[in-house]
Amino acid sequence: MLFKKSALALVAFAGLAACGDTLGEQALGGAAIGAGAAVVTDNSLAKGAAVGAAGNVAYCQLYPSQCN
Questions:
Q1: What are the pLDDT digits (tens) for 35-45?
Q2: pTM
Q3: Is position 12 within any domain?
């Protein structure tokens, strides 16, 4: 179980480097990262995905020069 959580955390953190070109890509990427973080911390997948999507979209819209 520790390996699974570690692998998911690594994938989630690697995803932080990709912001997405469109609003949909930004939301999807953020949702994936949020859901991965929720799995690692034993929290709700739906809540993690929602928070991740909202956070990534907000960041990318506020700081477009920081997104690749």
A1: 888 888 889 99
A2: 0.71
A3: yes
